[in-house]
Write a structure and sequence with these properties.
The complex is a heterodimer. Chain A is mostly helical. Helix content of chain A is 91%, strand content 0%. Chain A is rod-shaped and about 70 Å long. Chain B is an all-alpha fold. Chain B has two domains: 306 residues, no CATH class; 241 residues, Methane Monooxygenase Hydroxylase, Chain G, domain 1 (Up-down Bundle). Helices cover 79% and strands 0% of the residues of chain B. Chain B contains 27 helices and no strands. In chain B, helix 5 packs parallel to helix 13 and helix 14 packs across helix 17. In chain B, 46% of the residues are buried. Classes of the chains: A mainly alpha, B mainly alpha. At the A-B interface, helix 2 and helix 3 of A face helix 24 and helix 26 of B.
Chain lengths: 82, 597
């Protein structure tokens, strides 16, 4: 193993920030997955909804879930860039 | 009064004993060192009680067999049924365990405690136990000086074990020397009178030392030295088993009715077991002989036979009582009913849960949920609905429209009686907690305190609203009536929705459902403003009414946002780290506004 490689590995072990970031990224992935599932379910419910008012409410909820998911993806991207 | 006399009497008797016999001094010192070891051991385990111990207890007691096994294993490991029973009482008081599981743990602890007799009889008397004690003490004390909480905990455990072993060594030495100068066996009493007499002595010794373990070790060492007869040693073991319930009873004095129920269950179990053992003593002795012969215990090895007897009668006790657990639980529930009081009393914030940070945190959460429950009642009353109407599919708008006046409701009195006592109890409880909260625990406490504050502020704001809500309900001005009715209907629907979010499963990340409520509030405000503007332009609303409505709309907004904030904190129950990730994706005010446009 070259010196550089060894040093990189050592840095990886010592960098607690990286560990924390990885943990946070994993948690965000879980949340994003949940949001996606919820969004899909709501879209399906929205299609079935008969009354206009109910449909509108569901659409708004979809919009929020989508925004939350986008925010989560953005945060995840930021962590990965670090 | 009794306490005042008891301690000096014990001091005098002991001093007299020390003066008369140096061997007695050695035995007493052995008992003291043993008890000190137990205290260190308890302290060591409590160092891990900042979450780990409680989490394990929480996850392993959902079924009777699990709680039974938990009782056996934990008592075997900790060598203290008292510590297990006190922790169980604190869990029960905090509402983390149901009574049946608690009783299961206590039953298991009674079997687990018998391993102590095996350790002492099988290992402690045959090996030079003090040889193990010395290195344990040295390593333990070194660890005690470390900064890490866990290392310190291990240090306490090692020191505790070291002192336990050292205590046993001194007791053994004391009895060995004692038998040369004084023969206690001369005082042996045969038959049933002896059984009751020595059982009584066993109870008294355990009550004084607050440890059945210590009594049992004392009994075994005395038996090994031939200072007491085998029959009387059996009676002492029975007495020790009954006497050990004193720790649980003392522990339950500061606990709520659940804790008291468990302590009485413990007492009933040990009394019944003791009575069975005394009633069938000769049959049990025969069984011990039979078992001993089959497992290869020597004819004259009475110390191991005592261990067999101890295990046998505790196991029989569990077998007899296990089918009766349901009846025992309902009997105890009838015996200790929660007091019906007008003013709310804290149910979970007891002294018993104060010792363990995670349990204390859970107790605060449970109490906060109770405040939420009362808040629902108060808000429902303030808005003129019944609780049942809010939590059903009832069309609240239709109900509001049909009401010609709001039902009477005193918000102040309800707040003073139902919420304020609990809120102040929570604040006092948090400040009384002697331990230093860990970072994540103190974060949770901060959130919970904020959730309580949010609920209180929501109630206060609703109180300001109430006057005009009531006036509007009787008003002939249809516009005014509709606007105010809509206000109380929307706030009640928010409560309905919050309860739905609360009951959502953890997998669904309930906290994320709160963003749409915030967005909805912004929309409601916009609609409200538009409606007011048009009413004023068309001359249907006076300036005076407009000012009142603007003020009340602010109060309604405050109620709304405080309740949503409360929900964000209180209804999050799963892992703290995941909650952080959830909070990360929650939308900010600006982001919500952006969505609206």
């Amino acid at each position: 193993m070259t010196e550089n490689k060894l040093l990189t590995r050592l840095e990886g072990y010592l960098d607690l920030g990286a560990k924390r970031r990885k943990k946070k990224a994993d948690e965000l992935k879980v949340i994003i997955g949940k949001l996606k599932k919820k969004e899909k379910a709501l879209i399906a419910e929205c299609r079935k909804a008969g009354k206009r008012k109910k449909r509108e409410t569901l659409e708004k909820r979809c919009l929020i879930l989508h925004a939350q998911r986008k925010k989560g993806l953005k945060a995840l991207k930021k962590i990965k860039q670090k | 009064m009794l306490r005042k006399i008891l301690l000096p009497t014990i001091f005098i008797i002991l001093s007299w004993g020390f003066w008369v016999s140096p061997d007695f001094k050695t035995i007493a010192a052995g008992v003291s060192i043993f008890l000190f070891g137990m205290l260190s051991l308890e302290q060591g385990f409590q160092a891990f009680a900042g979450g780990t111990l409680e989490r394990i207890l929480n996850n392993t007691t959902d079924k009777l067999w699990k709680s039974l096994s938990f009782g056996v294993v934990s008592t075997t490991l900790m060598q203290s049924s008292s510590l297990v029973s006190v922790i169980t009482i604190s869990f029960l008081s905090a509402g983390l365990l149901d009574l049946a599981s608690g009783v299961g743990i206590i039953f298991g602890a009674n079997i687990g405690t018998t391993t102590g007799a095996w350790l002492v009889a099988g290992f402690g008397l045959k090996v030079k136990i003090s040889a193990y004690a010395m290195p344990m003490l040295v390593f333990g004390v070194l660890l005690l000086f470390q900064n890490s909480k866990n290392l310190k905990g291990i240090g306490y455990i090692l020191v505790g074990l070291g002192f336990l072993f050292l205590g046993i060594h001194y007791m053994k030495e004391g009895f060995d020397a004692f038998k040369d100068s004084f023969d206690l066996a001369k005082f042996a009493v045969a038959g049933y009178p002896g059984l009751f007499l020595f059982a009584g002595i066993g109870i008294a010794a355990t009550v004084v030392m607050q440890s059945s373990h210590a009594t049992l070790v004392l009994t075994i060492t005395a038996l090994a030295a031939g200072q007491i007869t085998y029959d009387n040693a059996l009676a002492l073991a029975i007495g020790a088993n009954v006497g050990t319930t004193i720790t649980a009873i003392i522990g339950s004095m500061s606990a709520n009715e659940q804790g008291k129920r468990l302590a009485v269950a413990h007492l009933i179990f040990n009394l019944v077991t003791g009575l069975i053992a005394i009633a069938f003593i000769y049959q049990m002795m025969a069984s011990v002989e039979w078992i001993s012969a089959h497992v290869g215990i020597a004819e004259d090895d009475y110390t191991l036979k005592l261990a067999v007897f101890h295990t046998l009668f505790n196991t029989i006790g569990v077998l007899v009582m296990l089918p009766l657990i349901g009846r025992l639980v309902s009997l105890l529930e009838g015996l200790f009913e929660p007091k019906a009081v007008l003013v709310s009393q804290p149910k979970y914030l007891t002294d018993a849960v104060l010792e363990f940070p995670d349990t204390a945190l859970e107790a605060v959460r449970q109490e906060t949920l109770r405040i939420w429950d009362h808040t629902i009642n108060i808000l429902a009353g303030t808005f003129g609905f019944e609780r049942g109407q809010i939590f059903s599919d009832t069309d609240l708008a239709a109900v509001a429209q049909s009401q010609r006046r709001l039902p009477d409701f005193d918000v102040d009195a309800a707040y003073e009686q139902q919420v304020k006592p609990l809120y102040s109890a929570i604040i006092t409880f948090i400040s009384r907690a002697g331990f230093s909260w860990q970072d994540d625990q103190s974060g949770d406490i901060h959130w919970l305190r904020e959730a309580n504050q949010n609920m209180v502020e929501a109630i206060k704001a609703s109180k300001h609203l109430r006057k005009n809500l009531a006036a509007a309900a009787t008003s002939t001005d249809e516009d005014q009536r509709t606007i105010y009715n809509n206000m109380r209907v929307q706030l009640s629907l928010l409560i309905r929705e919050l309860e739905e979010i609360r009951s959502e499963s953890i997998d669904e990340s309930p906290v994320l459902s709160l963003d749409h409520l915030r967005l909805f509030m912004n929309e409601l405000c916009e609609k409200f403003n538009a409606r007011m503007a048009s009413s004023m332009t068309e001359g249907r609303m006076s300036g005076e009414l407009a000012v009142s409505l603007l003020n009340d709309s602010n109060y309604a907004q405050e109620v709304y946002s405080k309740l949503v904030d409360m929900g964000e904190t209180l209804f999050v129950r799963h892992s703290r780290s995941l909650t952080d990730a959830e909070h990360e994706v929650l939308l900010s005010e600006d982001e919500l506004l952006e969505l609206e446009t």
